[in-house]
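Hi W., the potassium ion complex you wanted:
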Amino acid sequence: MNLVTAAEMRRLEQEAAALGVSAAELMQRAGREVADKLAALLEPAAGKRVIVLVGPGNNGGDGLVAARHLKTAGALTDIYLLSPRGSDDIVLREAVTAGLSPLEARYDVGFERLRAALEEADVVLDAVFGTGLGRSISGAPAAALALVEEARNRRPEMTVVALDLPSGLDADTGAIDPSAVRADFTITLGYAKRGFFLFPGAGYTGEILVADIGLPEGSGAGLNTEVLDEHLILDLLPDRPADAHKGTFGKVLVAAGSPEYAGAAVLACQAAGRAGAGLVTLAAGKSLYPVLASRLTETTHLILPETADGGPAPGAAELIAGRLKEFSAAVIGPGLGQSPSAAAFTRALLAALSRPENRASGFAAVLDADALNILSAESDWWLKVDFPAVLTPHPGEMARLAGLAVPRVQSDRIELARRCAGLWRQVVVLKGAHTVIASSDGRAALAPNANPALATAGTGDVLAGIIGGLLAQGLAPFDAARAGVYIHAMAAESVRAALGDCGAVASDLLGHIPRSFKALKEHDHAACH
Ligand SMILES: NC(=O)C1=CN([C@@H]2O[C@H](COP(=O)(O)OP(=O)(O)OC[C@H]3O[C@@H](n4cnc5c(N)ncnc54)[C@H](O)[C@@H]3O)[C@@H](O)[C@H]2O)[C@@H](O)CC1
Ligand SMILES: [K+]
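Structure:
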């Protein structure tokens, strides 16, 4: 599903106008679609009490059209105008002609009539502000929204439905005005807005329903931000031919683990296998071998020479380099630590991978965790990664890689990831609530969910392993990253369903990875029959 900014939505509106679909016509379609979707939610609309809060702009205009259709559907509809609308306002006149009697806030002393209406309302339709919000909300709109908030807290049976977006939510950034009211549903027009997938706004939309307002065919062609969904991911997944052998699904080299963080290697290797790689080989230090081999039944081992403190000794990277051609993908970084020996090893390994003669054709790697921390200590580090890679930073790692503070990263997640992917010429997976996946060609995708079950040690190692497993099966880096993030999120949802959002640990995800692939494919199968 494509996502838009306010400016992109305005551009689409202008393009529609150039093709003969006027803004007035779009407003009529928008209002009718919103009323239809709301009526379907109310089942039936007849007899239900609906208050439509109407603002000064086109969002309010859509609300007036919706109010008219809701009345026709039998809802007991009140219109509450928060600002005067001109006497030449066609949609207001149409509402009055249809028998509605709008009440203006300026004539409602102390908001007494609004308070009384909120005591009985089944639904509040918030059509105060949409994509045109230009400053902080004050005056009558702020007071009315505060009353709605207060009523919904007191009367949980009252449903709040946002028209296009919750008033006060910034469509582009997800920033929230203090007056914004959390919606139970957002019926959004044409396309979902980016701010629906950026916090804090992501917590305000409730369930998102997209209303088709009949934008001309192909009008979304230039959009470059999407939210992942199962149809898109299914198209990306590799085939599993019946005559396959383990070579069909590729070999992953995992360079991970250190005495302090041995478990990271276990999680990354197991996740790569669970994501369908044919063979996983772990390159780790000699002293770790007995521990890790006892945990990793199916993994093969490339045993590295060690320094006295258990770090990779000089020569470890060369040992791997001599074997690189056997592998179609690598995962480098989980649990490596940042000791001087780990840093020297990582730099030497990345240099070896950057020499094309060392790599199998189609090779790509995931760079995660300590590999990113080690890289970010060097200026212009991206010039040293001369092979296709998926970088999987969390916000702290992203801040170090980009030379920014964490709040800057978090306040501009999509565009920052996109800019960095362009500059670094790699795929960037910026983890966090609604993980962002950005490609150097300007495309960006967002994970559809934010799951607190993922906020625990080791889940990043699992993600790196899944993406590595998908790279090994021949997916292009952007596809492997998108599919990996989605499968990881699905597995996390299954864990949450089974265990709740507290106390799940990263290894709980592993068994749910193949189940997630299975669920996706079965859903597709069911959809075809
Ligand atoms: N772009 C499109 O393709 C379409 C847009 N439509 C609707 O148009 C909306 C955008 O309409 P507008 O651009 O008129 O914007 P809005 O309706 O969001 O509000 C803008 C109006 O509110 C005022 N305003 C902004 N912030 C304010 C504040 N904090 N306090 C008081 N007044 C404030 C502005 O001066 C302007 O008059 C969309 O959200 C959607 O509902 C639809 O009609 C259909 C098609
Ligand atoms: K709104």
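The first helix runs from residue 6 to 18.

W.
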